[in-house]
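Sharing a chain and its predicted structure for anyone who wants a worked example. Both blocks are below, sequence first, tokens second.
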Amino acid sequence: MAEYIEGKRPVIEALRTGVPVERLLIADNLKRDSLVQDILRKAKQAGVPVEETRRADLDAKSERGSHQGVMAQAKPFAYANLQDIVERANRQAEENGGHALVVILDHITDAGNLGAILRSAEGVGAAGVVIPNKRSAHVTAATYKSSAGAVVRVPLAQVANIKQTCERLKEEGFWVAGASEKAETTTWEANLKGKMVLIMGNEGEGLARLTLEACDFLVALPQMGEVASLNVAQSATACMYEWLRQNY
């Protein structure tokens, strides 16, 4: 199913941040104001074809009814496969003294959080990020924006089963750490050296039962305040940088 970015400013932002756009749809009676001129200029620079169409056709494609006469059709995202990430991680471990990081997201549902986690994963040099292929956020324009371009630099794979994925990574010599508020060990106390898998749970429910069973151990962030927790993107960033600190 095609994904459409609706509205003048969202389309400008998509073109500015490098969202791969397949085509630009413009209503045939649209007034060519300064925003529309900017869109057309950016589309030309990016080599994106522009098609004029009836406003009624845009209405039919619109999910929110906010297209303002402008819609951009995004190209399907090219996901990696798990084998790509395993091979990349093993190469990193061979070159970097035995350490590599793979991040698994257990049904994260917000595309913006996915992008923010990808941005941090790129920052620490993670080998890749893994998400489920169902009931999980996928790459959208919001992901491109919040990742600041990292979505095209870090391999992102979709898998059918997280527990089986963990078992596969264990066979490759990884230890699996699950981030959980219920953990008795903090990231500062845990041994995160070497080839690690870090699993972050759903924004509201945390790690699923089967995912917990797949973990070798659980870790929590050290905390002095009274607020229950950081959001998942902030927590993932803190955990990833503790892995980086321990290994470099």
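Comments welcome. The domain at 82-247 is CATH 3.40.1280.10 (Alpha/beta knot).
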